[in-house]
Write a structure and sequence with these properties.
Blueprint (H helix, E strand, L loop, with lengths): L2 E6 L2 H13 L4 E6 L1 H5 L3 E5 L8 H4 L3 H17 L3 E5 L2 H13 L3 E5 L12 H7 L2 E4 L4 H4 L8 E4 L4 H4 L6 H7 L7 E6 L4 H21 L3 E6 L5 H8 L6 E4 L7 H8 E7 L2 H9 L3 E5 L3 H10 L7 H6 L6 E3 L5 H13 L1 H16 L6 H12 L1
Parallel strand pairs: 1-2, 1-4, 2-3, 4-5, 5-6, 6-7, 8-9, 8-11, 9-10, 11-12, 12-13
Helix pairs in contact: 1-18, 4-5, 5-6, 10-11, 10-16, 12-13
Length: 376
Amino acid sequence: MKKIFISVGEISGDNYASELIKLLPDYRWTGITGPKMREAGCGTVEKLEDISVVGLIEAVPKYFKIRKAFKKAVNELEKGVDLLIVVDFPGFNLKLLEEAKKRGIKTVYFIAPQVWAWGKGRIPKIAKNTDILISIWPFEKEVYRDYLDKMDFEYVGHPLLDIVKTETDEKQFKQKLKILEEKKIFGLLCGSRESEVKTLLPIMLKAAKLIKKEREDIHFVIPATPNVESIVRQIVSNSELPLTITTKKDFKNPSYEVMRHSVFSVIASGTATLEASIIGNPFLLVYKVSPLTFFIGKMLVSIDFLGLPNLIAGREVIKELLQKDCNPETIARESLRYLSDKNLYQKTKQDLKEVKEKLGEGGALKKTADIIKNLI
């Protein structure tokens, strides 16, 4: 049985990779894994929850864990692997591709890093060490134009179109979580990394208090991934808000259920904002890292927006509250504005529909599985 090593550094990547593993059951899988990959039967060299961070300064405390994980991964390549698949997470995965190439292992970059936003200097390195780059964005072929003689390039569309599905209607959702039927759901999605949750959730809870003063009919719901559930519970323990935490014990994909049934949400920047766009209910994007990380990021990034929905639309369809603007007062004020202005609310719903349409046709994971079969 041929062996595939797969390296993932984000919860979103775990989502895509687990679906890929299910579509390719005839191979032996091992790698840097998230919870869904482990559920799908992938062997684990290191858990991504131990190495995933947002921001440069925030990565410092995890430096030794990341280095140790890299050594373990290289060790595994050394033992003999037929294919290396890496998913995004460039700081780690670019070096891993290099190690695989040295050992004559075939390589696939599935979901290339966003070099069009920052890090164009990485393109030659990607091209040199990648056999096939599998892209989920239609415009990326142009970005890699000068390197298409060095590697194969395949555009498959966005895998989230196949993944984002919900299983309840509003009534079932409220019954399951014991929320009164007349209440309106307001989602607080504070991210899946420890550093994000510790930074954003306290701000969101203060904003929620201000919102509740104006809107007694609202009930707040926080979906928590397994790796941060205890931190979320700790942070909300003294909160007197009408609030429920939901986890995998309640639903297959708690975040999707919350996005589907929330009249409005506040969402940490990242893949969740794209998932919410596919579902289509209005939300705010929030983001806060150390000032130094943000300053360095601003210098490196050559794009007008942080949020994926806005980048895809080419304009601001979702309000972005970054750094200083990511504060309780502004979050509460903007949330209440959407909830009281029907025209703004409907226009945002229409804009999100357009963002979804720009993501392609669906079937990205099946196409990716076929490419991998042909390569191996």
